[in-house]
Amino acid sequence: MPAEQLRVLITNDDGYLAPGIRALAPAIAELGYDVVVVAPLLDESGVGSARARMVGRPIRTESDVENGVTFTGIEGTPALAVTLANVGAFGRAPDLVLSGINRGHNIGVPIFHSGTVAAALTAAGQGTSAVAVSIDSEDPGHWPTAATIAGEALGWIVDEPAGTVLTINVPDRPLDQLSGVRHASLAPIKRSRVIGATAPTGEPMIELEPPRANPIPDTDEALLAEGFVTVTPIVGIGEVKDDAAATALAKRLA
């Protein structure tokens, strides 16, 4: 299907004013896609697939136009943005969902906490293929690198089975300095950079450790350090075809 016939919902978890989504949406529109941008009003990082207070209440929105694209913010999470778009709250339901550009990498098993990745998984659960794109960069000149990768990923995923999801991490480099593109395994949970800490006032808090010096080979953590774009197909909640647990419980209750 030609790009101009495909509607792409662009969302994120950093908020509709975030620089990542402001760089991404015009780049995707320039490729000819029918772009609709719906994202949280405020930063909703780490909310996972939450859609709290969704049913039976009006949802506040704000919008503005930049570079020819209308950006709509909702009082809610990325997963809620996807759900609203898929039920037609912003016109025709999207054919694809693009989540990002997230400010910070989403690597390892803990990505299920990410609102950016969860938006893509929410789309898949509703029958729509999706791509989540992240870059850990403070250099505005590197946002176009991630936007270019995102556009190419959309061109691939459109021909894949409905509900296909990719999470992609982009090194903090210009496009011409990338080492290439590699499939990456998720770094195991024991390699998570999330650590517990205590605030000066005594309250518990969470911090992120800096990247490790010896990441496990072929994981997203390791390949990013080598300058590769990492691509990891992922799936959301799925049934395990095994009745052992139910059979055991039935026996215990007999």
UniProtKB/TrEMBL annotation:
Residues 8-186 form the Survival protein SurE-like phosphatase/nucleotidase domain. GO terms for molecular function: 5'-nucleotidase activity; metal ion binding; nucleotide binding. Binds 1 divalent metal cation per subunit. Its cofactor is a divalent metal cation. It is found in: Cytoplasm. Its EC number is 3.1.3.5. A divalent metal cation binds at D13, D14, S45, N102. One of its GO terms (cellular component) is cytoplasm. Nucleotidase that shows phosphatase activity on nucleoside 5'-monophosphates. Belongs to the SurE nucleotidase family. This is 5'-nucleotidase SurE. The gene is surE.
